[in-house]
Design goal:
The chain is an alpha+beta fold. The protein is built from eleven helices and seven strands. Belongs to the adenylate cyclase family. DacA/CdaA subfamily.
């Protein structure tokens, strides 16, 4: 009896490394585009590919020629459409090198209490400012980003690049401050900029009482990896936006836990 040939199943170390690198690449790309408009763009491109295949199989020459012309510039179109995502991807690679990740893992394994304690020290001025602004019903929008994108924020903001402090945050959002309109962006343990104009969400299912602050906070969390803390000017209620979803009526204990996890 003739046996089966399983030579094609032989896997070398190079093949294993290849699979791991591809898996990591897919993981990074997924993290970049999940809950963003890029997902819808990819879905649209997939639909076009399916239509292209069906048209080609049915020998619909006119439509096939039109789609072929469109697909011939597909790579250039991809670069133009996904330019912000590609830029963030390169930033993520640059700021997440092996040495930095290795240092972080050692910290988590052997110094997690110190890291948590240091993080709470960083968060305290923000929590204190939120308490004061909630009490006085001062409207505020504070955005936290992992990687500060100069192109996205700096062009529509006033650069501050200052140490985080309760008084500075209160001063920025004080009603008669020239910087109170727009958002404060916090990154790299600094208040990087203020009075930032952010993209509004296209979600038409939000409650009608949501104003521009809520829509801007949700919008920036949809298109980037940012999280946003929103304080309502009308009610003083605190909301927390992440990945296009908003959590309402957040207590200070919950806010501390959320920021300790995400900031």
């Amino acid at each position: 009896m003739k046996g089966f040939d399983f030579d094609f199943l032989k896997v070398s170390l190079t093949d294993v490394a290849d699979i791991i690198f591809v898996a990591l690449l897919i993981y990074y790309i997924y993290n970049l585009i999940k809950n963003t408009l890029a997902v819808n763009l990819l879905l649209g491109m997939l639909i076009i590919l399916i239509i292209w295949f069906a048209v080609d199989q049915l020998n619909m020459r006119l439509l096939s020629t039109i789609i072929n012309k469109f697909m011939s510039v597909g790579i250039i179109a991809l670069i133009v459409i996904f330019q912000p995502e590609i830029r963030r991807f390169l930033l993520m690679i640059g700021k997440n090198t092996f040495l930095q990740q290795n240092k972080a893992w050692w910290g988590y394994l052997f110094g997690s209490k110190n890291i948590e304690r240091d993080n709470l020290v960083r968060i305290k001025p923000i929590i204190d400012a939120c308490k004061s602004m909630k009490k006085s019903r001062t409207g505020a929008l504070i955005v936290f980003v992992k990687f500060y994108d100069d192109q996205l924020f700096a062009n529509s903001c006033e650069i501050i690049d200052s140490k985080i402090s309760k008084r500075l945050l209160e001063s920025i959002f004080q009603k008669y401050s020239p910087l109170h309109d727009g958002a404060v962006v916090i990154a790299e343990n600094k208040i990087k900029s203020a009075s930032c104009i952010l993209p509004l969400t296209d979600n038409d299912k939000l409650p009608p009482q949501f104003g521009l602050r809520h829509r801007a906070g949700i919008g920036v969390s949809e298109t980037t990896d940012a999280v946003a803390v929103i304080i309502s000017e009308e009610t003083g209620e605190i909301a927390y936006a992440k990945q296009g979803r908003v959590r309402m009526n957040v207590s200070f204990g919950e806010l501390e836990k959320l920021l300790n996890k995400d900031f």
